[in-house]
Amino acid sequence: MGKTTALKMLVQRLISSGAPSTNVLYYSLDLESEPEAIVELVNRGRAIGGDGRRYILLDEVSSVPDWQRAVKYLRDNTPARNDFFVLTGSIASDIRRGAERLPGRRGPAADLDKILLPLSFSEFVAAVDRSLPDPGVRLRPERLVSSPEEASDVLERHLVFLPALDRHLEAYARVGGFPAAVRDYLLEDTREVTDATVRALWDIIAGDVSRIGRDPAVAMKLLERLSISLGTPISWTQLAEAIGVASPATAEEYARALAEAFELLVIYSWDTSRATRAPKRGKKLYAVDPIILRFPERITYSTRLPDLPLLVENIVALALFRSAERELVEAFPVPQALFHWRSAAGREIDFLVGRVPAKLPVEVKYQRSITGRDTLVIRQSFGSGILLSRTTLDLVGPVKIVPAALFLWLLEE
Q: According to the model, what pLDDT value does residue 351 have?
């Protein structure tokens, strides 16, 4: 969902920068099933090219079982050891296994694994509204609390753009950030994502689910449950009953499968008394992109789209995850720096952000009127934190209140 376009743009840049076109090899492996096919493909492609390094771009390499063996063989036993490889896949666990099975064959650079996620809100705004400036400055969530004067200056300078940003946030909550969906939003008179695009996006996800050995129909049931109970903690037992599988373990497997395919984020509860994740408590599930929440509404006609405040909470969850996690490939199945919190008395906070020992509370109250009651749980339980409103900006008290659209636009990711 965008990886293929990115690779083809890379082909254009390589040729424009002077690489001979015969030395640039792009191939989609969707229809291949044996690692030997990769070896034959690369060797035949190299035979066509001239002198110098080849640029070998293999799309959807994870669709080929044991693809790592082929790449290892090429790097160890053929002239391709000196070539530049770009490999794309759709499954987090497969990417990790690739790194583990190719030690010493990936070059000296650090941070080689990249995740191409749908456009974030700030990227969506840049794509759909050229009249808004690039803010040129980004804020870390913790700076709102530790340096309120500095944050206040940035936020107040950009507050004039809030009406436009809030309109864009409503659109983003409906459209999401997949390039095909954004294209529809820009080109269609209805400003809606077409049925064809919705179906195409679901077919890609269903294919990833099938590749992991899971049933796409059950995965759709999980998305139906997600749309109904977005933002509400759920146990694996409750999820098993909702999606019609035999055991809590199977429900967890489906949630992890969607997380491994970069479609679902599972947020665990944080145990403040033990300063650790609480895996037996209820989990909060969020879609990686808002359009995923529309699949049940648009494809199976089984549920309606969640209300806007819940969609904004979902968007905030993904934005905080992208901002806080250092290794996204590792963190997708089990986030290490983003949790939710619930006290023994039933008090709740949407998110705790950051690594031990610092955990910053973030609550989403996407409403126009904010009162002292809305900040009470953060003040009493953690002392300070952030509350994301719809229109209120107030950095005076211990709980910093910031409009959600402005926060998301300026967030450092």
A: 97
Is a pLDDT exceeding 60 seen at residue 290?
Answer: yes
Please check the confidence at residue 331 and state whether its pLDDT lies above 80. no
Q: Taking all residues of the chain, what is their mean pLDDT, rounded to a whole number?
A: 90
Residues 6+ apart with CB under 8 A from 272: 341, 359
Write the pLDDT tens digit of every residue in 94-123.
666 666 666 656 666 556 667 788 999 999
CA distances 221 to 53, 241, 306, Å, are 48, 11, 16
Structure tokens given for 52: 């110098």
Higher local confidence (pLDDT), 1 or 148: 148
CATH of 3-101, one of 3.40.50.300, 3.40.50.970, 1.10.10.10, 3.40.605.10: 3.40.50.300
Adjacent-strand bridge partners of 277: 270
Spatial contact of 288 and 119, defined as CB atoms under 8 Å apart: no
Of 228, 286, 300, the closest CA to residue 258 belongs to 286
Backbone phi and psi for residue 309, each to the nearest 5 degrees, phi listed first: -55, -35
Give yes or no for a contact between 334 and 392, defined as CB atoms under 8 angstroms apart.
no
Task: Evaluate if residue 283 carries a pLDDT over 60.
Answer: yes
How many residues comprise the chain?
A: 413
* CATH 3.40.50.300 boundaries in the chain: 3-101
Q: Is 16 helix (H, G, I), strand (E, B) or coil?
A: helix
Q: Torsions phi, psi of 13, nearest 5?
A: -65, -40
